[in-house]
Design brief:
The protein is α+β, with helices and mostly antiparallel strands. The protein is built from four helices and four strands, in the order H-H-E-E-H-E-E-H. A four-stranded antiparallel sheet has the order 1-2-4-3, covered by helices on one side. Helix 3 packs antiparallel against helix 4 (82-94). The radius of gyration is 13 Å and the shape is globular. The structure holds ligand H2B.
Amino acid sequence: MIPRLTDAERAALVDLLPEWALAKDRDAIERRFAFANFSEAFAFMTRVALLAEAHDHHPEWSNVYNRVSILLSTHDAGGLSARDIRLAEAIDRLA
Ligand code: H2B
């Protein structure tokens, strides 16, 4: 079983991932992105999809025209784990 984040690790998130927020109704983090148009949004999603495959860790996400919403949570842990943090950091480096 993959361990969920400890309280100390959760407290560090605000500094580590300032663009991400804790989800209201899930043990998850989320971030919204906006691009110039659909093409740029979808190009970003393609790059995130490749990252997700490389990490073997996959986002829950949606796209509406130029906007992309990403929610990260570890299904195998039933909540937030270090895997979510690693993928969020990698997505931040793309954005
Ligand atoms: N993605 C997410 N978000 N959570 C998981 O627990 C997860 C995953 N598990 N991607 C991976 C795939 C697992 O199912 C495979 C077998 O490694």
